[in-house]
Amino acid sequence: MPGCRTPRLDERIYVAGHRGHAPAGRRSARLPEFAGEERIAASSRPEETLMAGARSGR
Protein backbone atom coordinates (compact mmCIF):
# COMPACT_ATOMS: atom_id res chain seq x y z
CA MET A 1 0.00 0.00 0.00
CA PRO A 2 1.60 3.27 -1.10
CA GLY A 3 1.68 5.90 1.64
CA CYS A 4 0.84 8.79 -0.68
CA ARG A 5 -2.27 7.13 -2.03
CA THR A 6 -4.09 6.20 1.19
CA PRO A 7 -4.46 9.74 2.60
CA ARG A 8 -6.01 11.00 -0.64
CA LEU A 9 -8.47 8.11 -0.72
CA ASP A 10 -9.43 8.74 2.91
CA GLU A 11 -9.94 12.44 2.20
CA ARG A 12 -12.13 11.65 -0.81
CA ILE A 13 -14.17 9.19 1.23
CA TYR A 14 -14.76 11.83 3.91
CA VAL A 15 -15.75 14.48 1.35
CA ALA A 16 -18.07 12.04 -0.41
CA GLY A 17 -19.71 11.13 2.89
CA HIS A 18 -20.32 14.76 3.80
CA ARG A 19 -21.67 15.49 0.33
CA GLY A 20 -24.09 12.61 0.66
CA HIS A 21 -25.47 14.13 3.88
CA ALA A 22 -25.69 17.61 2.39
CA PRO A 23 -29.07 18.63 0.93
CA ALA A 24 -28.38 18.52 -2.80
CA GLY A 25 -30.65 15.86 -4.31
CA ARG A 26 -31.68 12.25 -3.96
CA ARG A 27 -29.59 11.15 -6.93
CA SER A 28 -26.61 13.27 -5.82
CA ALA A 29 -26.83 11.97 -2.26
CA ARG A 30 -27.05 8.36 -3.35
CA LEU A 31 -24.06 8.21 -5.69
CA PRO A 32 -21.38 9.72 -3.40
CA GLU A 33 -22.19 7.28 -0.61
CA PHE A 34 -21.82 4.33 -2.94
CA ALA A 35 -18.59 5.73 -4.37
CA GLY A 36 -17.25 6.16 -0.82
CA GLU A 37 -17.98 2.55 0.05
CA GLU A 38 -16.38 1.30 -3.16
CA ARG A 39 -13.33 3.45 -2.50
CA ILE A 40 -12.92 2.09 1.01
CA ALA A 41 -12.95 -1.45 -0.42
CA ALA A 42 -10.47 -0.38 -3.08
CA SER A 43 -8.10 1.12 -0.51
CA SER A 44 -7.99 -2.21 1.33
CA ARG A 45 -7.45 -4.09 -1.96
CA PRO A 46 -5.21 -2.27 -4.48
CA GLU A 47 -6.16 -4.87 -7.09
CA GLU A 48 -9.80 -3.77 -6.98
CA THR A 49 -9.04 -0.08 -7.50
CA LEU A 50 -9.78 -0.38 -11.21
CA MET A 51 -12.99 -2.29 -10.56
CA ALA A 52 -14.18 0.30 -8.06
CA GLY A 53 -13.38 3.10 -10.49
CA ALA A 54 -15.36 1.40 -13.25
CA ARG A 55 -18.28 0.78 -10.90
CA SER A 56 -18.42 4.38 -9.66
CA GLY A 57 -18.22 5.55 -13.27
CA ARG A 58 -14.91 7.44 -13.20
Would you kindly provide a brief summary of this structure?
The chain has helices spanning 5-21, 26-44, 49-56. With 58 residues, the protein is mostly helical.
Q: Any overview of this molecule?
A:
The structure is a single chain. The protein has 58 residues and is mainly alpha-helical. The protein has three helices and no strands. The chain has one domain. Helix 1 packs antiparallel against helix 2 (26-44) and helix 2 runs antiparallel to helix 3 (49-56). The longest helix is centred in the middle third of the chain and has 19 residues, at 26-44. The radius of gyration is 12 Å and the shape is flat. Mean pLDDT is 52; it is low at 22-29.
Low-confidence regions: 22-29
Gyration radius (Cα, Å) is 12 Å
> How does the helix and strand content classify structurally?
mainly alpha
Q: What is the 3D form? A: flat
Largest sheet: none
Number of strands: 0
The share of residues in extended strands comes to under 5%
How is the secondary structure organized here?
Layout (H helix, E strand, L loop, with lengths): L4 H17 L4 H19 L4 H8 L2
Helix pairs in contact: 1-2, 2-3
Task: Write a concise keyword list for the protein shown above.
mainly alpha, flat, 3 helices, 58 residues
